[in-house]
Amino acid sequence: MTNASYAHSAIKGTLWTYASYYSGKFIVFLSTILLANLLTKEDFGVVGFALVVIGFLDVLSDLGIGPAVVYERENPKSGSTAFWIGLAVGLALCVFAWLLAPLTAYYFKDPRAVPVLRALAFTFPITALSNIHANLLTKALQFRRRFIPDFARAVAKGVFSVAFALLGFGFWSLVWGQLLGTLATVIAYWGVFPWRPALEFDRAIARRLLTFGKSVVAVDGLASILLNLDFLFVGHFLGTEALGVYSLAFRLPDLLITQFATSVSSVLFPIYVKMREQADSLGRGFLTTLRYVSMVTIALGIGLMLVAGPFVRTFLAVQWLDAIPVIQAIALYAMFFSLAYNAGSLYKATGQPYILTRLALIRLALLAPALYYAAAVMVTIRAVGYAHALVAFLSGLLNLIVAARIASVSFAEVLASLRPAALSGLGMALAVWGISVFAGGWPPALQLTIFTLTGGLVYIALLLLQQPDLTLTIKQLALVARRRA
């Protein structure tokens, strides 16, 4: 493939990933709003206990063989071998989670965690049934075909969760929604992708997959600790209701910002793999990606922080007002985290996933004491959120410095890629803050509307002022993507 072909694949894949992401997440967003008004803080907290444990165990769900299949040279036996490994591991994790449930209840001081964790443990073997399908589609750059499974998951999870909540199932509505959404994903993948695992297992291939995968597992294991440590501390030190508020507050920035970066990364990894022999192309591609990702993540991060108050007062019940400062803090965390997230795809694609491990260890050394102090000493979920944001800023900065060296570009070029979005975000914040001084007595819905429109217009105007060619570039990218869709 030529550099132009790689670019076209990246554009097309990213657009399809965006379509899948935003259509599905819009449904998740609506269902979250409905569930927040149908369920209590405790309902979210009880399920949060189990999801913390599931999150820790999830890193072992395929032993890293998913990315290994993408990295592995073409071999018809690779998919089947990986499938049976993944299914065996999924079943083993289900049994382990079942046995671990009583200890989870003891740690969180809530016996309701036992049946919830045991029910959610079935997500491991169910997910294993479609994990290789998803990775084979990624390897082939067939991102369009992942749209239906991702969308099916969001629809099933949202519809079933809300339906069970309306029927009075309480926290169990979240559990059944999660399980049925996962099952819908499996059915959709098997429907859109005709690949079927054969009854074969190649030990040599298995060793190669597991050798590559162990580095990915190490990285993902540390990432899981970093992503779930705050929930672990909040649940233990602050209790069920606090975890419920924190879980809901975390969902919105995660939904809008963090998972955006994850979606982009799923496109970039196979692209970087194919470009790894072309150092100059790899560096230019990294800077271009960073430039455009920053335009979205900075706008979303600062924007969500600015409108968190009127948003919660408009859409959620009074019981969730405590979530406002947490949403603001986590919005900053998600922004800093997402700006550096795609560097991970660069490390893995160049065969250096160990860099992620080392960076994650540094971040963990900063994060663990910061979160412990916030939860156990300051005893507020707001402090936990801002501790997360501070560490994400410091570790993200280090991540970008290292990524610049790997991509053979200067850090000055990295900062230049970030500058337009950063300056536009600052201007947006000043504009919205200026209006908020006079809008204290306005209805929340009016505040939300005015803040969003003003902030969006100012942000776009400042971007175009700094980059007059941006409109033409976006039109060209959209035209290329439409022609090659």
Summarize the structure in words.
The protein is mainly α and 485 residues long. The chain is built from 18 helices and no strands. It has helices at residues 3-38, 41-58, 65-71, 76-108, 113-120, 123-139, 147-166, 172-192, 203-238, 240-275, 279-315, 323-341, 343-349, 354-378, 381-406, 411-436, 444-466, 470-484. α3 packs across α9 (203-238), α7 (147-166) runs antiparallel to α8 and α11 runs parallel beside α16 (411-436). The radius of gyration is 22 Å and the shape is globular. Residues 1-11 have low confidence and may be disordered.
Helix residue percentage? over 70%
Category from helices, strands and their pairing: mainly alpha
Q: Whole-number radius of gyration? A: 22 Å
What is the H-and-E element order? HHHHHHHHHHHHHHHHHH
Kindly give the count of domains: 2
What general form does the structure show? Answer: globular
Key features?
globular; mainly alpha; 2 domains; 18 helices; 485 residues; single chain
Give a topology summary:
Blueprint: H1 3-38, H2 41-58, H3 65-71, H4 76-108, H5 113-120, H6 123-139, H7 147-166, H8 172-192, H9 203-238, H10 240-275, H11 279-315, H12 323-341, H13 343-349, H14 354-378, H15 381-406, H16 411-436, H17 444-466, H18 470-484
Helix pairs in contact: 1-7, 1-10, 1-18, 2-4, 2-5, 2-9, 2-10, 3-6, 3-9, 4-5, 4-6, 4-9, 6-8, 7-8, 9-10, 9-14, 10-11, 10-12, 10-13, 11-12, 11-16, 11-17, 12-15, 13-15, 14-15, 16-17
